[in-house]
Automatic annotation (TrEMBL):
This is Accessory Sec system protein Asp2. It comes from Pseudolactococcus hodotermopsidis. The lineage of its organism: Bacteria, Bacillati, Bacillota, Bacilli, Lactobacillales. InterPro entries: AB_hydrolase_fold. NCBIfam families: XcbB_CpsF_sero.
Length: 567
């Protein structure tokens, strides 16, 4: 049998209207050639070019009779697992002599679709290569394995692109809607179908698609063998409207538990039934795309609710963390438990919101009480790609944190935590360390019955000796910050006095014992520094101080500086 040939017909209109039923001889001859596996692809000098379906070439990819192309969305990074949209073409013109146009719309079935689907989505666009204008992807006498070959191609493309079945969505409008619906039923795929042309009754008299006597006008009859009634998942969405005069009535014949039908309340400018169909398929594109994307992303989305619990403020200066994929979070029995899930992390961070942000240049004491098998690396950040870390271990109680920036979050990198590892947080308190906290000494505060009166000052402290005592001492005890070793230390005190003082003394305090370890004559309004040595190997010193001995009444003493250094 020849691969191609040319033939003339009469009457001749230069397109496929030459073969309408009114020209019975032409119509019957065309259908006979279709049964032999030919279609028309071209017209020149009054002759029509008949070509075997296998010999057609639309300039894309081929496998046997099948013609298709594969395009993709932006895939320069693996944002999502690979996905596949299988796009079946609608019917544009049934009379053009271009087979590529009739069967494939020249490959331009849905321009811009690549920019309208999620990243990492591939698009397999199929031509309806059967008979003269296509067979709505149904088997025919001349192509009895059409459905099986399309199913095989979809599976092969999925294997080659690494797409699992759950991430495949079949789509199409009108004729393409029938193809998508058919193959979703056959292969148990998800599908979004836009007003499928499931009946050709409207085109019967004109034999619009040159399919009379080849397939039933009621296309739902061809779908019945693939119906199922045992599925609880509505994975096939049909968008239509009860204003669709041509096809709506036939939807009631789609008795499959996988199908859900959406009835769109859309108005029409014209009364013609085919005009209604084009209004629905064209006017519903935004909603159609939204349904397609919902199906494509359904395995990547999870509906979550913000936590209703609040961590007790007396033990936590962090907020209850938001639900996330890396940790199971439970607050129970007064502890917060984080359990690492098996979800792979790629540079992600699980964050707590701080009740009060860390400020740049400030020092903080973080009291963390946790139970953990391995150290936990916390990161203070603003959710950008940099931050400042600190480590908490099971034995950790207090951590000194010098903030080098303003940080509003404290997080944990999931990559540093093994699957199944639990982190039990009993307490997470944060205290900003004041200048006084950073001082190795405590500034004594005096009451009204004391011999000294505390004065407003620009120095560390200022005191007025205003009531005589025998002697009246001020004890600058070591602060909790000061930690000493069994060693000798040098202590210096710088003061300024409002009256001359002879033999002004620097005292050392140890339990109930006070020792004068240094003394010096001081002149009025001049800075003077006294020094002494204390030895913690010999005595457990608790602080240093001054006394009123030699000080005239109503003398003000300014404490300018105190320091202690290990020798």
């Amino acid at each position: 049998m020849k691969e191609e040939f040319w033939e003339s017909f009469s009457p001749d209109f230069g397109d496929l209207s030459t073969f309408k039923p009114i020209y019975q001889e032409n119509n019957q001859k065309l259908k006979e050639y279709a049964r032999q596996g030919y279609t028309i692809d071209g017209y020149e000098n009054g002759s029509y070019h008949f070509v075997k379906l296998e010999a057609l070439d639309f300039g894309h990819q081929k496998k046997g009779r099948l013609q298709y192309k594969i395009t993709s969305s932006t895939n320069n990074f693996q944002y999502f697992p690979n996905k596949l949209v299988v796009l079946f073409p609608y019917q544009d013109s049934t009379i053009t002599t271009s087979a590529s146009h009739r069967m494939f719309l020249n490959g331009e079935v849905f321009p811009g679709l690549e920019q309208s689907v999620p990243r990492n989505t591939y698009i397999l666009t199929l031509a309806d290569v059967n008979c003269i204008t296509g067979s709505f992807f149904l088997n025919t006498e001349s192509y009895p394995d059409y459905i099986a070959e399309v199913q095989t191609l979809i599976k092969e493309v999925c294997e080659n692109l690494g797409v699992i079945k759950e991430n495949v969505v079949l789509i199409g409008s009108s004729r393409g809607g029938v193809g998508a619906l058919l193959h979703a039923l056959v292969g148990d795929y998800a599908a979004v179908v836009n007003d499928p042309a499931i009946s050709l009754i409207y085109a019967h008299n004109n034999d619009e698609y040159f399919l009379g006597d080849m397939i039933s006008d009621d296309l739902t009859e061809s779908l019945v063998p693939y119906f199922r009634h045992d599925s609880v998942e509505k994975k096939i969405t049909i968008i239509s409207s009860d204003t669709s005069k041509i096809f709506w009535s036939y939807l009631q014949k789609l008795q499959d538990s996988r199908i859900k039908i959406i009835n769109v309340d859309i108005k029409h400018r014209h009364k013609n039934g085919f005009s209604h169909h084009s209004t629905i398929t064209g006017g519903m594109i935004p909603y159609y795309l939204s349904q397609v994307n919902e199906q494509l992303l359904k395995n990547d989305l999870a509906i979550v609710e913000p936590p209703t619990e609040n961590l007790p403020v007396e033990r936590f200066d962090i907020g209850m963390p938001m639900v996330n994929r890396w940790f199971d979070i439970v607050y129970q029995n007064d502890v917060l438990t984080l359990t690492r899930t098996a979800v792979v992390s790629q540079g992600d961070q699980f964050n707590f919101i701080l009740k009060k942000a860390f400020q740049m240049g400030q020092e903080y004491e973080i009291e963390v009480d946790i139970i953990t098998e391995k150290p936990v690396h916390f990161i203070a950040s603003n959710a950008l790609n940099h931050g400042q870390g600190f480590v908490a271990e099971q034995t950790t109680k207090k951590i000194i944190f010098n903030s080098n920036n303003c940080w509003a979050l404290v997080g944990i990198s999931p990559e540093t935590i093994e699957t199944g590892q639990k982190i039990v947080i009993k307490q997470f308190k944060i205290r900003q360390i004041s200048d006084a906290d950073k001082f190795d000494f405590s500034i004594p505060h005096v009451n009204q019955r004391h011999f000294w009166k505390q004065m407003a000052t620009e120095f560390l402290a200022s005191y007025l000796y205003y009531r005589e005592g025998s002697p009246a001492r001020l004890n600058f005890a070591f602060s909790s910050r000061f930690s000493h070793e069994k060693a000798r230390y040098s202590v210096t005190l710088t003061v300024q006095v409002s009256n001359d003082v002879e033999k002004f003394g620097l005292l050392g305090f140890a339990s109930n014992r006070v020792s004068r370890l240094s003394e010096k004559d001081i002149r009025k309004d001049e800075l003077a520094t006294l020094s002494m040595i204390i030895d913690f190997r010999k005595r457990d010193w608790t602080g240093i101080g001054i006394s009123s001995q030699g000080v005239a009444l109503n003398t003000k003493i300014d404490i300018v500086e105190i320091s202690i250094t290990k020798l």
